[in-house]
């Protein structure tokens, strides 16, 4: 089987024992094969066309909290029925391989589904939050920022499902303020919540010898910040994406789907 251009270079860097720290950043493309639509992708279900830029904001939540919750509960239902694909399992295998070798691995995902966790990934940062969590809007509340959340499964949506309205939006069990999805919205900062762990991500970007982006359109802030830090340090930076587009100078592209390429890469690393 002929490997795509860039594969051998990626394999060489990943297998080099001098590569002590590897950072992988995944985007929506890694979950597409699991049936979860992308945002900016070209797949028919890409949700960017559905006004997510205007509705995926805290401003919209304040204006129409019931509509905001309805949109995210629909996304949660799609994500809840999805299962990890070969890309998710390969990343978990890569993590375990490097752990056995005494090397460092960190997986940073922009995705809010739980597929990486289902696949077994442990060295994981969910930099945009998680669809299976909610949080209070009141800063300082035990269930609110800077560090509080509660599982979505513990939230009573009965009244909301019966009659969606601002009045039936679920309330915090501690302070009775409204609950919101634990998601980083487009008009918010990464420093909004400690679980986004942005400082850890940026520190690792500046210390890793290898940075691999998987299935991301490079359309959000964390990708630019991570790639800039890594390239400045002199790290090798790769993008695995079927489009084959080079997102920035210095980033090496491997044009293949994540669920196809990652299992082959990890298999080759295992020898």
TrEMBL record:
<dbReference type="InterPro" id="IPR003000">
    <property type="entry name" value="Sirtuin"/>
</dbReference>
<keyword id="KW-0479">Metal-binding</keyword>
<feature type="binding site">
    <location>
        <position position="136"/>
    </location>
    <ligand>
        <name>Zn(2+)</name>
    </ligand>
</feature>
<keyword id="KW-0520">NAD</keyword>
<keyword id="KW-0808">Transferase</keyword>
<feature type="binding site">
    <location>
        <position position="172"/>
    </location>
    <ligand>
        <name>Zn(2+)</name>
    </ligand>
</feature>
<dbReference type="Pfam" id="PF02146">
    <property type="entry name" value="SIR2"/>
</dbReference>
<feature type="active site" description="Proton acceptor">
    <location>
        <position position="128"/>
    </location>
</feature>
<feature type="binding site">
    <location>
        <position position="175"/>
    </location>
    <ligand>
        <name>Zn(2+)</name>
    </ligand>
</feature>
<keyword id="KW-0862">Zinc</keyword>
<dbReference type="InterPro" id="IPR026590">
    <property type="entry name" value="Ssirtuin_cat_dom"/>
</dbReference>
<feature type="domain" description="Deacetylase sirtuin-type">
    <location>
        <begin position="1"/>
        <end position="271"/>
    </location>
</feature>
<dbReference type="InterPro" id="IPR029035">
    <property type="entry name" value="DHS-like_NAD/FAD-binding_dom"/>
</dbReference>
<dbReference type="InterPro" id="IPR026591">
    <property type="entry name" value="Sirtuin_cat_small_dom_sf"/>
</dbReference>
<dbReference type="InterPro" id="IPR050134">
    <property type="entry name" value="NAD-dep_sirtuin_deacylases"/>
</dbReference>
<feature type="binding site">
    <location>
        <position position="141"/>
    </location>
    <ligand>
        <name>Zn(2+)</name>
    </ligand>
</feature>
<protein>
    <recommendedName>
        <fullName>protein acetyllysine N-acetyltransferase</fullName>
        <ecNumber>2.3.1.286</ecNumber>
    </recommendedName>
</protein>
């Amino acid at each position: 089987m002929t490997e795509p251009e860039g594969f051998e270079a990626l394999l060489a860097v990943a297998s080099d024992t001098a590569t002590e720290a590897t950072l992988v950043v995944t985007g929506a493309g890694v979950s597409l094969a699991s049936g979860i639509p992308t945002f900016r992708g070209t797949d028919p279900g890409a949700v960017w066309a559905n006004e997510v830029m205007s509705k995926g904001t805290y401003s919209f939540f304040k204006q129409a909290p019931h509509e905001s919750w309805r949109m995210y509960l629909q996304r949660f239902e799609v994500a809840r029925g999805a299962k990890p694909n070969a890309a998710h399992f390969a990343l978990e295998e890569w993590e375990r391989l490097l752990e056995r070798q005494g090397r460092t691995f960190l997986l940073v995902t922009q995705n809010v589904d739980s597929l990486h966790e289902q696949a077994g990934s442990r060295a994981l940062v969910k930099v945009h939050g998680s669809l299976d969590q909610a949080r209070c809007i009141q800063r300082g509340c035990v269930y609110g920022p800077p560090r509080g959340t509660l599982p979505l499964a513990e939230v009573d949506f009965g009244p909301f499902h019966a009659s969606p309205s601002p009045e039936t939006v679920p309330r915090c069990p501690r302070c009775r303020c409204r609950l919101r999805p634990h998601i980083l919205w487009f008009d918010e900062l990464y420093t909004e919540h400690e679980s986004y762990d942005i400082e850890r991500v940026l520190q690792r970007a500046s210390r890793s010898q290898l940075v691999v982006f998987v299935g991301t359109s490079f359309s959000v802030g964390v990708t630019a910040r991570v790639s800039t830090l890594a390239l400045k340090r002199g790290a090798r930076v790769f993008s695995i994406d079927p489009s084959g587009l080079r997102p920035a100078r210095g980033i090496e592209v491997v044009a293949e789907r994540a669920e196809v390429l990652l299992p082959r890469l990890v298999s080759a690393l295992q020898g």
